[in-house]
Amino acid sequence: MKKLKVALISLYQHSFDGDKQKSHLRAVNGMRRLAEKFDFAFYAYPKMIVEKQEAVAARKVIEEQGADLLLIHTASYAAGETFIHLAKTRVFLGLWAMTEPRPEVFTGQVPLNSFCGINMFAGILTNYLKEYHIPYKWFFGETEDEAFQKRFLVTVRALTAIFNLRASRVGLIGGIAPGFNDLYFDERLAEKRLGVDIQRNYEFDDIKRLADSYFREDITEALVTVQSGFCTEGIRCDSLETNARYYKAHIEFAEKEGLDAFAMSCWPKMQDIGLGLSCAILGKINQYGIPAACEGDLPGAVSMLLLSYLSKQPTTLLDFIAFDEADDTVLLWHCGPSAECFCEQSQRKLEYHYHHVPDSPYREMGLVGSICFDSGPASIFRFAGEWDQAFVAAGAFTGIDKDGYKGCRGWYGNLSLADAPISALDLTNTVMVKGFPHHYPLVRGDFTEELMEISAWLSLDVMEKIPYKNYLQR
């Protein structure tokens, strides 16, 4: 992953008699310590800026440095004209004011008037420069303050995910699954809004030829991998070998093509050649660290990739298949493409997907990873609309396998949407009234703050609650 690069410039004005140089050094040294603690790259512009010409020169250096976030630090109140030149630098902006030298004393002349400076800068951005649509976030306090560190860490995580996504390449293999029209997308808009390089013309035969090319000895390691961590009782050797071939083929293909994530039309492609489904294969690929979405859901794959950059963990893609008003939970499930790290406290089992349907032509074809998700928090995020909307939800899995279906599943409660509590019924109503796509990318942990900030930096409309009513809602 690419490290976020943060740059800092301190502005000041002669008329304030506080120790502006000391304020500048506090900012620089404190940010250097945070860079080491939070793992980002840091560059401090060596001179403090007071005049317009100095700002013009500083802007050129910042652009040459390739900064992702420019912190405008007010060593004291500073001229708006100086700030305007720096604000037009093509990077995200942070406005940072520190506490006054004697924060408990409010008598005499104000030493630095630092906070008022960033207040004015925010007003310039939203009024005088409003046509530039420059996003910014304000910060206040010392780098040692717990509140400052929490606020700044959210930004580091959010922007690190955004800038890694911008440098990513995502592929669609075999097209979208037939009939799954709610997963259609325009890759041009994704590339324009997010910077993602999307390749949609790969064919399933590209994978099949690679899988068929392996000799038995070529898949020895992959054969161990596809079985590890799962009970395989009752599974035929030829089924495990098929999984090993296609697991190896997908990973080698992704690495050869430089794909950071991909979506594949797992059905009907694999059924058509008599191989069943690829659920367990995708689960192992997700565990390996390449976000892999099923059913040709490329927006789902891009969303999973963002979650993986944010969390540095495997992600998954689930269906929302039931809700229970009794305990205010919803059942998230899929055939079995989830990484095994979602289930470390109960048995994981490989099973045949259609084993329970005696007359199915696909009986005992295609393996699923059957797991019940461990209890604990988890976050959902998905790009929606024309890549200009976001679904941000959070909750916690109960760890209770109450009437869980075969595959990967978990009952999910303590729900929130757009950082606001929501009931299971209202969540159900919201996704139905909005016509939200039926796939939910998910990662372990609560990343609500980071996902809300990502949505703000990218100017995404975050979906909000539509309370359940008995009448038609549009």
- End-to-end separation in angstroms reads 42 Å
- Beta strand %: 15-25%
Judging from the principal axes of the Cα atoms, what is the shape?
elongated
How many helical stretches? 14
pLDDT < 50 runs, ≥5 residues: none
Largest sheet: 6 strands, antiparallel, barrel
Q: Provide the domain count.
A: 2
Query: Could you give the count of β-strands?
Result: 19
**Averaged pLDDT, please?**
93
Radius of gyration: 26 Å
Structural class: alpha/beta
Strands in their spatial order, largest beta sheet: 10-11-16-15-14-18
Percent helix among the residues?
25-40%
What does this entry look like structurally?
Helix 5 runs antiparallel to helix 12 (298-311), helix 5 crosses helix 14 (448-457) and helix 9 (237-257) crosses helix 11. The chain has helices at residues 20-38, 52-65, 80-87, 114-128, 146-166, 187-194, 204-212, 220-227, 237-257, 266-272, 279-288, 298-311, 424-434, 448-457, and strands spanning 5-11, 41-44, 69-74, 92-97, 136-140, 169-173, 197-202, 261-264, 292-293, 316-324, 329-334, 349-352, 367-372, 376-384, 389-397, 408-417, 420-421, 439-444, 461-462. The longest helix has 21 residues, at 146-166. It starts with a strand and ends in a 12-residue tail after the last strand. The strands form three sheets. A six-stranded antiparallel barrel has the order 10-11-16-15-14-18. A five-stranded parallel beta sheet has the order 2-1-3-4-5, sandwiched between helices. It folds into two domains: 5-166, 3-Layer(aba) Sandwich (Rossmann fold), CATH 3.40.50.10940; 169-462, no CATH class. It is elongated. Strand 3 (69-74), helix 3 and strand 4 (92-97) form a beta-alpha-beta unit. It is built from 14 helices and 19 strands. With 474 residues, it is α/β, with parallel strands linked by helices. Helices cover 37% and strands 23% of the residues.
